[in-house]
Design a protein that fits this description.
The protein is an all-alpha fold and about 425 residues long. The protein contains 23 helices and 2 strands.
Length: about 425
């Protein structure tokens, strides 16, 4: 902090920090970086005491270095290793002072400076790994506050503590199964907190102009890995990380739209369509459905064959869901899926070809047995109106006739 400095000392400090401009890049690049005093000076200016009042005005050193020293030109000129340290420190500021003056200054700097996407991916990975450690949960929730006020602890932590105390009080030994369950719950709680800690980084990518990220396509794998971790958590944790999933899906959509103009930046193999399908299957949140469907529709325009190959599990799942729970919400999701994905798939097809339409209609006809009778007219009517009834009614009629003939010849019901 600089609150105890005299006016003359404050003036000297400001002058020293302002001397770190574009011409200082060679000094910040001197090896070894670990003992480089200029790098240490900049990083020291970026540190804020955790005991400082969050709502207080930013310290003089922090305010000066962010407003006058860390310009886009300077950050672009220093080595990637220095960029990584600056980025990590700014993310830490943003995480601890989110929505507050110090955090706002850090965010403005992060949005302006150029960064290699690889550094963002590494920071996401480091945040997730740090959250996996047993010490991270206590650090995140504030162990001291929890000791003073048990009500401040997360519900799952308090519940598991009560179960352990009850077991000790009753004299019952803790079984291997109970111990395993406790470890699994603790691991999932830490993982959930780690995913929530990635939120500031995901927000930066969501707001940052993608032309200030070098090789943004490198983030695709990281985002899908994070999405996979989200979906691996138990259903009781999904509500707490819906916002994280929505950020990931939104950022993937932005990356796809940005990189689709430069196809060499995209790798079709990296786009995990099955993960997007699972995002729809496992969530009850309409916003998550909306983000996933928008992304699937955009993906269908760029990689139509990949999405078409995954249409079967999408609609097969939906047909099975209808059989289990015949409700308006399920059919709303199906209708929105048809509206978002089907036109994109048909639009990507070669003129004069009907292969995609045949495949799409065939999926619904094959799932006929799963669809309640009172839903069939509305569902197939919506599908035809989306495809274009005048052009494609004959395809639906032919597939129904084929299904009826095969079912009859096989001794089954024609439905």
């Amino acid at each position: 902090g600089s609150g105890g400095l005299t006016r003359a000392e404050r003036s000297v400090l400001v002058a020293c920090i302002r001397s770190v401009d574009g011409t200082a890049a060679p000094l910040l690049s001197q090896e070894p970086l670990d003992s480089n005093p200029y790098v240490a000076f900049v990083l020291q200016c970026l540190q804020v005491s955790p005991h400082r009042s969050p709502a207080a005005a930013p310290p003089l050193a922090l305010e000066t270095v962010l407003q006058h020293a860390l310009t886009p030109a300077l950050v672009a000129a220093v080595p990637e290793a220095v960029q990584g340290r600056i980025f990590a420190q700014l993310v830490e500021l943003l995480r601890h002072f989110h929505g507050l003056p110090s955090g706002q200054l850090a965010l403005q700097t992060l949005l302006a400076i150029p960064l290699p996407a690889r550094l963002v991916a590494e920071q996401l990975s480091a945040t997730l790994e740090a959250g996996r450690s047993p010490q991270s949960l206590a650090a995140d929730i504030g162990a001291e506050d929890t000791r003073r006020d048990p009500a401040a602890a997360p519900a799952d932590t308090v519940a598991s503590g009560k179960r352990r105390k009850a077991s000790r009080a009753s004299g019952e030994p803790v079984t291997v199964t109970q111990a395993a369950e406790a470890r699994a719950q603790s691991e999932e709680a830490r993982l959930r907190r780690a995913l929530q800690n990635t939120t500031p980084i995901l927000e930066i990518v969501g707001e940052k102009p993608l032309d200030t990220l070098r090789e943004p396509g490198l983030l695709v794998v990281s985002f899908f890995e994070l999405l996979s971790v989200c979906l691996s958590l138990g259903t009781e944790h999904q509500a707490a990380i819906e916002h994280v999933k929505q950020q990931l899906l939104g950022n993937l959509l932005s990356l796809l739209q940005h990189c689709s103009q430069h196809t060499h930046l995209l790798s079709e193999a990296e786009w995990n369509i099955e993960m997007l399908v699972k995002s729809i299957q496992t969530s009850q949140n309409p916003q998550t459905h909306h983000h996933a469907l928008l992304l699937l529709a955009a993906t269908a325009r760029v990689f139509p064959r990949r999405v078409l190959a995954s249409v079967m599990p999408i609609f097969t799942f939906m047909g099975e869901s209808v059989a289990r729970q015949d409700d308006n919400f399920t059919f709303m999701v199906i209708d929105r899926t048809i509206e978002k994905i089907v036109p994109a798939l048909v639009q990507a097809e070669q003129p004069g070809s009907s292969h995609t339409v045949l495949a799409i209609v065939g999926v619904f006809v094959d799932a006929l047995e799963h669809i309640p009778r009172h839903r069939r007219t509305a569902l197939f009517g919506h599908l035809l109106s989306t495809l274009g009834a005048r052009q494609h009614l004959h395809i639906l009629a032919a597939l129904f006739l084929k299904k009826a003939v095969l079912s009859t010849s096989g001794g089954g019901s024609s439905n």
